[in-house]
Write a sequence for this structure.
C-alpha cells in the first residue's frame, strides 16, 4: 500500500533532507521541477502547445519556474508566465534570477485573460501544501479564472487551494493531473477533494528513501487487488456460513433481494431474509434461493453473521437493539445506521459484538452528530472524525463516497480510490453490504472482509461500466461472482 501523509510530515522530511542529508534546497527544487516536467511532457501533443505558468511567490512557484525552464530547453517555446506575489521565497527568487536569462515573457494582468484563453495547458504553481487557510482574494480569483478556462490544468505538488487545514468548500484548482512530491498527501483524499487532483503521480525530489519510509502515515492507499483463499473441495452450503439479512419495508422490498444476491455471488452458502410480515410474500417470490422469515420471529443468535438496514425504513431502533444485544457479528447499513444514531442520541452507545458499519456521507454525519464529533470540512478534520467514530463505536467503518475510507480502530485508514461514478446508483450500497457479510461469514476476518468487499464491489463496477456503460444494481450482480472467482489464489 502507498502511504498517505500530512503536508507537515513532508515539510519535515524536506528539512531533514537539507540538514541531515546535506541536500541543498535548490537541488531539491531542481529535482522536483525536472520530474514534474517529465510527466507534463508526456501529456503534451505538440511542441507549439501553449503553456501558461501561474507562479506564486513560494517554493511551489519556484518548482513551476524550473518546469518552465526545462520545457524551454526541450523546445517548448510557446510559454507565458504570470507571477503572483511581490515577495518570493529565497529559492523562488533564485529561480526568477535564472529565468531572466531566458526569453519566456512574463505577462501582467492586462494580458492574462488572453493567455488563459489561448492556453492548452495551465501549470499551477500558485500555492503548495502548506496552506493554513483559504487562498487570499487575489489567488482565489486567479484559481476561479483558471478553472473557467478551457485549458487542462497541471498542478505541482497539490492543486492550489487544497490543504490539510483548509475547508474543502474553499476555492481550489481543478487539475487534470497532479505531480506530488515525496508521498501522497491526505488533503487529496477527502471525499470532496479527490476529483480536483485528476490523475495523481508521486515523484521523489531526491529525499533519501529511508526518510520517506519514516513519514508518519495518516492513511494508506490500497493498490493490490483483493486476494481470497479458494473454497475447499469439500465445502458445501453449511460450511460456507449462514447469513441473516434484516431489512426491507413496503416501499423498499428490492433492497433485500439485491443484498442476498450479492451475498450468494460472494460465496455465502445460506442466506435468510428477515423482514416485515406484510412483505414476506413479495420477498419470497423475488428471491427463490433464500429462506424468508418474519423479523419478529427470527432468533438472530442462530446465524453466523447478520446484516441490518437495507431497505429498512424508519422506526427500527428497538429491533436494532435486539440484534446488537446478541453480540453476533453484524454489518450495519443504510437505515440501520440511522437507527444506531437515534439510539446513541437517546441512550448512549449500545453494547454490541463485532461490528462493521457502512455509511455514506449523510449517514456518517448523523453518527458524528450523535457522538458530538465536529467536522470543520477540512481534510485533517475529516480523517480525525472518521477515526474518532470508529474508536468510539469500536467498529470498522466503511465510508462510501467517490472514494472509500476503511477505518479500523488503532490502525491507519485504508483508502480505496475507486473514482467510478457509475457505481452511484440505487441499491449499490445494498450489494456492498451483502458482499462484505458474505466474505466475513465464509471465513475471512472482519478487516479482510471489509477491504475485500470494497475491492470486489469496485472491480465489479469497473467491469460493468466497461462492458455496458451504465447499469442498474441488479445488472451489477452478474459481475460479482466472476470477480470473486478470479480473486481466489
Amino acid at each position: 500500500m502507498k502511504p498517505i501523509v500530512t503536508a507537515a510530515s513532508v515539510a519535515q522530511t524536506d528539512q531533514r533532507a537539507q540538514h541531515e542529508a546535506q541536500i541543498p534546497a535548490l537541488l531539491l527544487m531542481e529535482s522536483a521541477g525536472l520530474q514534474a516536467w517529465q510527466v507534463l511532457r508526456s501529456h503534451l501533443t505538440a511542441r507549439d502547445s501553449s503553456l501558461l505558468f501561474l507562479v506564486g511567490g513560494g517554493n511551489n512557484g519556484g518548482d513551476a519556474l524550473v518546469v518552465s525552464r526545462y520545457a524551454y530547453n526541450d523546445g517548448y517555446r510557446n510559454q507565458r508566465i504570470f507571477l503572483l506575489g511581490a515577495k518570493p521565497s529565497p529559492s523562488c527568487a533564485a529561480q526568477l534570477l535564472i529565468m531572466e536569462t531566458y526569453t519566456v515573457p512574463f505577462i501582467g494582468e492586462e494580458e492574462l485573460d488572453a493567455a488563459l484563453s489561448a492556453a492548452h495547458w495551465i501549470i499551477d504553481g500558485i500555492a503548495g501544501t502548506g496552506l493554513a487557510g483559504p487562498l487570499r482574494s487575489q489567488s482565489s480569483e486567479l484559481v476561479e479564472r483558471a478553472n473557467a478556462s478551457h485549458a487542462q490544468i497541471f498542478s505541482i505538488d497539490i492543486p492550489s487551494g487544497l490543504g490539510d487545514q483548509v475547508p474543502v468548500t474553499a476555492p481550489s484548482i481543478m487539475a487534470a493531473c497532479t505531480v506530488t512530491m515525496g508521498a501522497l498527501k491526505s488533503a487529496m483524499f477527502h471525499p470532496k477533494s479527490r476529483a480536483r487532483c485528476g490523475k495523481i503521480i508521486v515523484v521523489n525530489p531526491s529525499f533519501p528513501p529511508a526518510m520517506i519510509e519514516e513519514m508518519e502515515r495518516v492513511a494508506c492507499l490500497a493498490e493490490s487487488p483483493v486476494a481470497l483463499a479458494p473454497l475447499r473441495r469439500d465445502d458445501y452450503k453449511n460450511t460456507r456460513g449462514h447469513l441473516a439479512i434484516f431489512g426491507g419495508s413496503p416501499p423498499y422490498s428490492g433492497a433485500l433481494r439485491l443484498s442476498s444476491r450479492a451475498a450468494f455471488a460472494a460465496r455465502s452458502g445460506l442466506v435468510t431474509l428477515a423482514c416485515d410480515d406484510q412483505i414476506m410474500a413479495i420477498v419470497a417470490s423475488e428471491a427463490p434461493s433464500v429462506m424468508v422469515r418474519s423479523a419478529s420471529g427470527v432468533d438472530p443468535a442462530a446465524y453466523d453473521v447478520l446484516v441490518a438496514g437495507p431497505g429498512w425504513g424508519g422506526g427500527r431502533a428497538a429491533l436494532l437493539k435486539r440484534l446488537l444485544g446478541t453480540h453476533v457479528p453484524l454489518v450495519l447499513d443504510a437505515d440501520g445506521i440511522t437507527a444506531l444514531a437515534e439510539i446513541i442520541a437517546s441512550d448512549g452507545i449500545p453494547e454490541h459484538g463485532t461490528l462493521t458499519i457502512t455509511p455514506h456521507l449523510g449517514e456518517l454525519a448523523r453518527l458524528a452528530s450523535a457522538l458530538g464529533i465536529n467536522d470543520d470540512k477540512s481534510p485533517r478534520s475529516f480523517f480525525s472524525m472518521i477515526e474518532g467514530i470508529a474508536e468510539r463505536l469500536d467498529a470498522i467503518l466503511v465510508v462510501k463516497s467517490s472514494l472509500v475510507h476503511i477505518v479500523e480502530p488503532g490502525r491507519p485508514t485504508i483508502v480505496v480510490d475507486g473514482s467510478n461514478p457509475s457505481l452511484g446508483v440505487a441499491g449499490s450500497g445494498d450489494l456492498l453490504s451483502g458482499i462484505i457479510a458474505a466474505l466475513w461469514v465464509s471465513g475471512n476476518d472482519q478487516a479482510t472482509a471489509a477491504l475485500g468487499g470494497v475491492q470486489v464491489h469496485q472491480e465489479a463496477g469497473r467491469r460493468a461500466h466497461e462492458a455496458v456503460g451504465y447499469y442498474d444494481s441488479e445488472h451489477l450482480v452478474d459481475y460479482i461472482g466472476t470477480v470473486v472467482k478470479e480473486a481466489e489464489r
